[in-house]
Amino acid sequence: MSSARNLTAALRRARVPRPRVALRPVQFTPLTSTTRTFTSSSTRTSDSRQIKYTSEAYNVQRNPNFAEISADDVAHFKELLGSQSAVIDGVTADAADDLEPFNSDWMRKYRGHTRLVLKPQNAQEVSKVLKYCNERKLAVVPQGGNTGLVGGSVPVFDEIVINTSRMNQIRSFDAASGVLVADAGVILEVADQYLAEREHLFPLDLGAKGSCHIGGNVSTNAGGLRLLRYGSLHGSVLGLEAVLPDGTIVDALSTLRKNNTGYDLKQLFIGSEGTIGLVTAVSIQCPPRPKAVNVAYFGLESFEQVQQAYLAAKGQLSEILSAFELMDGRSQSLVIESTGNKHPLEGEYPFYCLVETSGSNAEHDMAKLESFLESVMGDGIVADGVLAQDETQFQALWRWREGITESLSHLGGTYKYDVSIPLADLYQLVEDCKVRLTEMGFVGDDDSFPVRAVVGYGHMGDSNLHLNVSVRQYNKEVEKAIEPWVYEWIQKRQGSISAEHGLGVAKREFIGYSQNETMVKLMKQLKNLYDPNGIMNPYKYI
Amino acid sequence: MSGLRILVPVKRVIDYAIKPRINKAQTGVETAGVKHSLNPFDELSIEEAVRLRERKGPIKVEDILALSAGGPKCPDVLRTAMAMGADRAFHIDIPEKGDSGPEPLTIAKMLQAVVKEQNVNLVLLGKQAIDGDQGQTGQMLAGLLGWPQTTQASKVEIKDEAGTVEVTHEVDGGVETLRAKLPMVITTDLRLNEPRYASLPNIMKAKKKPLEKKTLADLGVEDTRRLKTLKVTEPPPRKGGGKVEDVDGLVGKLKELGAL
Q1: Contact call for B37 and A389, based on CB within 8 A
Q2: Could you tell me if B3 and B60 are in contact, meaning their C-beta atoms sit under 8 angstroms apart?
Q3: A387 to chain B, minimum CA–CA distance in Å?
Q4: N or C: which end of chain B has fewer CB within 10 A?
Q5: pLDDT of res. A476
Q6: What is the DSSP code (8-state) at residue B174?
Q7: Backbone CA torsion sign across A415, A416, A419, A424
Q8: Where's the Electron transfer flavoprotein alpha/beta-subunit N-terminal domain (chain B) (predicted)?
């Protein structure tokens, strides 16, 4: 018989749900094998056979100006980086299995032909690698946790992958100012855990936090769940260290909140998706960790009411409001279908919202939240809802929002559109898309229809919608029906075709829908200035 | 039997998803500024009481009384219990005294008095509270009342109007089904049910449900403490494994440890 203590431990094990993190497969780093592995190419990596090569799917030609990697190059890199675990060599040996995780993405949508992965340990090593690549005209792809959604971190042809996973040290943290300085390859959750022990919080939170690297977050200007509260990385990143293609180390690792001394060049690296330089370290402003966090989950009858609830939340919860998320009914039934979990509300509603508050005083927050809940229930804005009574329920409610991406991936492929649209029109895109695809005969309940469902969810507080078309298999005709229609729809409403995911490969041709010719020209000028040979993350949006 | 009058004692404890920390004086667990919630086993008891009512069995549920003993924040968990479906609540105000709460025997005597006063015929309580892990109250209460008890229930069924109850509980390697007659004491275990969320309309309604404050003296019970906590310490920290850079490192490490 177990003791009571063991029973308590068992209870914790039995009922604590899977953490809200690591919703995406954690990327593992295979060890380099020095001996040649004799696996025939037809039997290896059976589960990756279906992933189409990006080079075929997107009709791009390899740039003939780029050199081919030679055995001499590999020998040079091996000498340069010293440690054998820093190089995965598929040039002089067969390392296809080891290379596979670096050549494809977790959505199984993009696949490259790289034969070499380098894992430098610091900015100096990155500098030497890039300088050499630039002189030899060898193309490179910077890669962090490889959790991106647009194929930005996956090679297209034989670009060398420069992976940041070995740059994983937290350099410093100042409790007084809340400034954290850390290497680019630190995993977001690790950084947040480190800060949690010091009663601070990383100002970014997203589903992939168990795998993604903060360098990648900065390079792609990731938005995530708490942007509403803590703002964009363009504001919270105080400085960074990056390496330009010619090997120049850009030391802009300032920890100052204010620094008006000329051009704010660090901003060029935030969101440029590794096309100008490779970020090797970041200094970031971190807020104190909230002591009291509450979550409520609503069911609503119309999008009109969702907007009213959002206005009420902003007005009444103001400074403690930390997230306002929208999920449509279909997205929630897909989560039920995939997880088998019992839905928190009794009835079914076309819309659901998740409202989170974070503050420093539980009683004060609860008083505010209760009066807010009373008013939205009393005014009939919200049809039904629940309030998390403990930590477990808190996490369980969040999973109804954060688990959507994972559930969709279990059910098949997904065409993902991450867009910014003025709030009033936000959900109209989903309705219009559903009508369009249904009229074209793509949507249905059995396997003869390519499209399973058209769902919408997203960060209501940031006017950011995720339009997801869940498909049974990726299908060119469906894709043609959505693109460029969806981009035109957004352009008409002055929206952005990529709110937080970036452009990468997926939207490489569509930048014009959200940026005018002058802007694109200016971007190209900058690109040519810092990367004249174009070796940084080629074949992507620029 | 006319109707079921159920008493559900509940306790406010540190949320079980939160890692407790020992205080500096090593006399107990740090509770200030730590998230508290309803003891998970008590949540199951409340849920079961509400389900007994919803199931509309042979005996109608007349009253569900939630009760909590402790400091000024106990009403929080009582409101949760009422939002889940309890009809009314008693808060037995016990001033903080030292680092631990009243002993199980005190609580059992207090419950005995409430059972008598309120004419209760079924007490549903968690098999243990996850803070003290003592797991004695239910058994002591049944002893004091001279009632039958079934512990660690994973299924509760009211069989007939005469008050026959069948309770299934888990034992090593299987389950055991017991039969007894009301009035009785049942302690609850994990597999009994899956507690519901407190819905907003019910949270609002719970605010208007009666919450009565009482003291131990009102019930004729004294808070005697016969045990003294000498020291509370954390379990020894788990020794983490090391990481090696590559295969050579692994081989080197294994040799160092004499495994190769």
Answers
A1: yes
A2: yes
A3: 6
A4: C
A5: 86
A6: E
A7: positive
A8: 26-223
Strands in B184-188's sheet, in edge-to-edge order, are B174-181, B164-171, B149-158, B184-188, B122-126, B4-9, B61-70, B88-93, B211-215
Question: Residue A101: pLDDT band by 50, 70, 90 thresholds?
Answer: very high
Report which DSSP code applies to A403.
Answer: H
Nearest to B62 by CA among B121, B2, B5, B116: B5
Tokens 């015929």 label which residue? B121
Residue A173's nearest CA partner among A153, A208, A212, A199 is: A199
Residue B90's SS3 state is: strand
Measure CB to CB from residue B38 to each of A5, A33, A389 and give the nearest one. Answer: A389
A384:B201 CB<8 A: yes
Provide the residue count of chain B: 260
pLDDT reported for residue B123 = 97
User: A528 Cβ partners below 8 Å, 6+ apart?
Assistant: A534
CA A237 from centre of chain:
17
pLDDT given for residue A532 in this prediction: 96
Helix (H, G, I), strand (E, B) or coil at A227: helix
Tokens (6 digits) for B137: 């109250």
What tokens were used for B162?
């005469």
- Asked if A539 and A508 count as a contact pair (C-beta separation under 8 A), the reply is yes
Q: Give the pLDDT of residue A36.
A: 36
Residue A298, strand partner residues: A353, A385
Cβ neighbors of A298 (< 8 A, separation 6 or more) are A309, A352, A353, A354, A355, A376, A382, A383, A384, A385, B200
pLDDT at A37: 35
Among the partner-chain residues A85, A377, A389, the one whose CB lies closest to the CB of B200 is: A377
Residue for token digits 């000024």? B72
Whether A163 and A118 have beta carbons less than 8 Å apart is answered as: yes
Q: How far apart, in Å, are the Cα atoms of A445 and each of A95, A337, A470, B44?
A: 42, 13, 12, 38
Inspect the interface and report whether the beta carbons of B128 and A5 lie closer than 8 Å: no
Whether the CB-CB separation of A164 and A125 falls below 8 Å is answered with no
Task: Give the three-class secondary structure for A412.
Answer: coil
Domains and CATH numbers, chain A: 46-163 (3.30.43.10), 170-285 (3.30.465.10), 412-501 (3.30.70.2740)
Instruction: State yes or no: ipTM above 0.85.
Output: no
Do the beta carbons of residue A255 and residue A174 sit within 8 Å?
yes
With CB atoms and an 8 Å threshold, state whether B246 touches A386.
no
- Please answer whether residues A475 and A444 qualify as being in contact, where contact means their C-beta atoms are separated by less than 8 angstroms: no
What's the token pair of residue B150? 């079934």
C-beta atoms surrounding A486 within 10 Å:
22
Confidence band for B98, pLDDT divided at 50, 70 and 90:
low
Cβ neighbours of B246 in A, within 8 Å: 31-32, 83-85
Of the candidates A1, A16, A344, the beta carbon closest to that of B197 is on A344
Burial class for A172, CB neighbours closer than 10 Å (0-12, 13-18, 19+): exposed
Q: B149-158 and B184-188 as β-strands: parallel, antiparallel, unpaired?
A: parallel
CA distance A249 to A277: 9
Cβ contact (<8 Å) for A34 and B247? yes
Are A286 and A180 a contacting pair, CB within 8 Å? yes
Give the Cα separation of B129 and B103 in Å (integer). 12
> Tell me, what's the pLDDT at B39?
96
Instruction: Choose which CATH entry (3.40.220.10, 2.30.110.10, 3.40.50.300, 3.40.50.620) describes domain B4-256.
Output: 3.40.50.620
| Residue A22 burial (CB count, 10 A) | 16
Q: Which residues on chain B are in Cβ contact (under 8 Å) with A395?
A: 17
Strand A179-183 to strand A170-174: parallel, antiparallel, or no bridges (unpaired)?
antiparallel
Residue B119 and residue B183 in contact, taking contact as beta carbons nearer than 8 Å: no
pLDDT value at A164 more than 70: yes
